[in-house]
Write a structure and sequence with these properties.
Strand order of the largest sheet: 1-2-3-4
Oligomer: single chain
Protein name: F-box domain-containing protein
Strand content: 5-15%
Order of helices and strands: HHHEHHHEEHEHHEEHHEE
Helix content: 25-40%
Distance between the termini: 61 Å
Number of strands: 8
């Protein structure tokens, strides 16, 4: 139609200005869609967190591994992304995570496929596969000096029976990686972590918290022990974990120096079925 102007024909300054109002995943998808010399200007220079939960849920649910891979390549994720969250990306198998292989800077990877304060139990069977995901995670933890501090896995991986033996073996390698590092201590009391006979990620498939990261604040990824008064930040995983174990946590909160929510009082009530 006469008078129509393609987005790719707009000045790069205009595109960059419009993109500055978008969430980070929307900005990346716009750059991918245009697929021209303006992509770098649209993506911008400030990156760190890529949270697909910032997209409309229907869009996230329909993203494929090809979409994910293209976005990660577009933003140069291996050298720029420190936090990745795949909220609502139920159609992704994990093959699209390939551009993160060997990342030395990523600190947190949330594969739970749900957003904050949502039940981890999905209404459909997720496509995310150990066969695709674990080799990429291995390439990260095998790298000397890697920055990885926190992993959250899909509920289905933790509750599926029988448990995929490759998942169990990865948990052992992850724990060994943490234990091989310099001593990590509680930020509050300097207790060495993990505490005796405990693990960074629970390896016992018969235990309640199998496959769950311990001693680490979900928000700030700093480390805390479970002593009273310190447990607060360590328990600041997503509230989805609360749903999973059928308990309600009520707390009075203040903002701590680490900018995460620190619970001063914790009251645990068993939910009435």
């Amino acid at each position: 139609m006469q008078g129509e102007i393609a987005l790719s024909h707009l000045p790069v300054e205009a595109l960059s200005y419009v993109a500055s109002f978008l969430t980070t995943p929307s900005r990346a998808l716009l750059a991918v869609a245009l697929h021209d010399d303006n992509s770098s200007a649209i993506v911008g220079d400030i990156w760190g967190t890529l949270d697909f939960g910032q997209l409309e849920e229907d869009l996230s649910r329909n993203l494929t591994d090809n979409h994910l891979k293209t976005v990660l390549l577009c933003v140069d994720a291996v050298s720029r992304i420190k936090t990745l969250r795949l909220a609502n990306c139920i159609s992704i198998t994990g093959a699209g995570l390939e551009p993160l292989r060997g990342s030395a800077i990523i600190e947190k990877i949330d594969l739970s496929l749900v957003g904050d304060h949502e039940s981890p139990i999905l209404d459909v069977e997720p496509s995310l596969s150990c066969d695709f995901v674990l080799p990429i995670l291995d390439s990260i933890i095998e790298r000397d000096g890697n920055a990885l501090k926190y992993l959250q896995f899909p509920h289905a991986w933790q509750k599926e029976r029988p448990v995929d033996p490759n998942f169990c073996r990865f948990i052992s390698r992850y724990n060994a990686m943490f234990n091989s590092q310099n001593t990590i201590s509680c930020l509050e009391c300097n207790t060495s972590l993990p505490e005796e006979d405990l693990y960074w990620i629970g390896p016992d498939e018969d235990a309640q918290y199998f496959g769950t990261q311990n001693y680490t604040c979900y928000r700030c990824t700093k480390h805390f022990c479970y002593a009273y008064g310190h447990v607060s930040c360590a328990l600041m995983r997503k509230v989805s974990m609360v749903y999973d174990h059928a308990i309600l946590i009520m707390f009075a909160a203040v903002i701590a120096d680490c900018k995460c929510i620190k619970m001063e009082r914790v009251i645990v009530l068993h939910a009435v079925s």
